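Researcher: Next entry in the queue.
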Amino acid sequence: QVQLVESGGGSVQPGGSLRLSCAASGIIFSRYAMSWYRQAPGKERERVAVISSGGHTFYPNSVKGRFTISRDNTKNTVTLQMNTLKPEDTAVYYCNAGISEGTDWLNYWGQGTQVSVSS
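Model: Structure for this entry, 119 residues:
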């Protein structure tokens, strides 16, 4: 059974930092691309960071330079360090594990963790 369990969400003032973690089980973690997505009320889910199985990372412009994704294949964990947080970063953040299965892309999701940025 695949499980992705996020932790580390909470409330912070603008300019503050939070560190999200995701612990994976039930998958060969090192083979998966790991991503963080977020979804704010009334908005579509968007990817904010991805790290490939080879360690390559990508960020959209909205978070580039503020967010850093990292992975530890020995502990089956992926972490999102979020700095200089803004109110528009408020959302539920989801951990995602993805892998190519032939012509399909297989996805697993965590349950989400709330991040709130306000003064």
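Model: The chain is about 0% helix and 55% strand.
Researcher: Noted, moving on.
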